[in-house]
């Protein structure tokens, strides 16, 4: 699972993610000894995104991505409510955004506290640079001021397209469970 490992850098201005870097140091590690290891993806609002080829999930497919190792009933209930054609489980917040922008998943759904602002700021900026969206499960944007809590207590919902569809599918029980912030 070395390809799940990412190094994340995010820049926020006035509380909003504006630039980000995702380094995937072990990208291509299974391709043999002659393979070039690692890659860096980056993006900035108003400038664009670099280091990857933007792709989308085939039309009409809902591939929901969620946590590989931190699941619970609230998470599984939320994922099921999205009516996915397929569910994939991977590690790493940065890796999950890579899966979105490379067309391997339609939505990243994590209906649980756990990840932190440093997990989402850089990847969120890259996602926004290509027209995607990242919010908490309640549909509220995360803020990145110096004095905010580090924990993303209300989970994560990220999409390249159709954010409203996924946001509208979050069950009331999940909204209540994560409404603490």
UniProtKB/TrEMBL annotation:
GO terms under biological process: phosphatidylinositol phosphate biosynthetic process
One Pfam family here: Inositol_P
Keywords of this entry: Hydrolase, Lithium, Magnesium, Metal-binding
Recorded GO MF terms: 3'(2'),5'-bisphosphate nucleotidase activity; inositol-1,4-bisphosphate 1-phosphatase activity; metal ion binding
UniProt: Mg(2+) binding residues: 119
Matching SUPFAM superfamilies: Carbohydrate phosphatase (SSF56655)
InterPro entries given in the database record: CysQ/Inositol_MonoPase (IPR050725), Inositol_monophosphatase-like (IPR000760), Inositol_monophosphatase_CS (IPR020550)
Enzyme category, top tier: hydrolase
Keyword Magnesium (UniProt): yes
Catalytic function, reaction form: 3'-phosphoadenylyl sulfate + H2O = adenosine 5'-phosphosulfate + phosphate; adenosine 3',5'-bisphosphate + H2O = AMP + phosphate; 1D-myo-inositol 1,3,4-trisphosphate + H2O = 1D-myo-inositol 3,4-bisphosphate + phosphate; adenosine 2',5'-bisphosphate + H2O = AMP + phosphate
Keyword Ribosomal protein attributed: no
UniProt EC number: 3.1.3.57, 3.1.3.7
Cofactor(s) needed: Mg(2+)
Family designation: Belongs to the inositol monophosphatase superfamily.
The protein's name: 3'(2'),5'-bisphosphate nucleotidase 1
Organism: Aldrovandia affinis
């Amino acid at each position: 699972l070395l390809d799940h490992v990412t190094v994340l850098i995010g820049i926020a201005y006035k509380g909003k993610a504006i630039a980000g870097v995702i380094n995937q140091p072990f990208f291509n590690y299974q391709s043999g000894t002659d393979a070039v290891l690692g890659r860096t993806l980056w993006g900035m609002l108003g400038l664009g995104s670099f280091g990857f080829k933007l792709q989308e999930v085939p039309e009409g497919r809902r591939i929901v991505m969620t946590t590989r190792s931190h699941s619970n009933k609230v998470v599984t209930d939320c994922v099921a409510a999205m009516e996915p054609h397929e569910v994939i489980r991977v590690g790493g917040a940065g890796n999950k955004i890579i899966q979105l922008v490379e067309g391997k998943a339609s939505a990243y759904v994590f209906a649980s506290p756990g990840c932190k602002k440093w997990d989402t700021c850089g990847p969120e900026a890259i996602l926004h640079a290509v027209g995607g969206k990242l919010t908490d499960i309640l549909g509220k944007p995360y803020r990145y001021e110096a004095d905010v809590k580090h924990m993303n207590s209300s989970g994560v919902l990220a999409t390249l397209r159709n954010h409203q569809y996924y946001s509208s599918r979050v069950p009331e029980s999940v909204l209540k469970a994560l409404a603490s912030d």
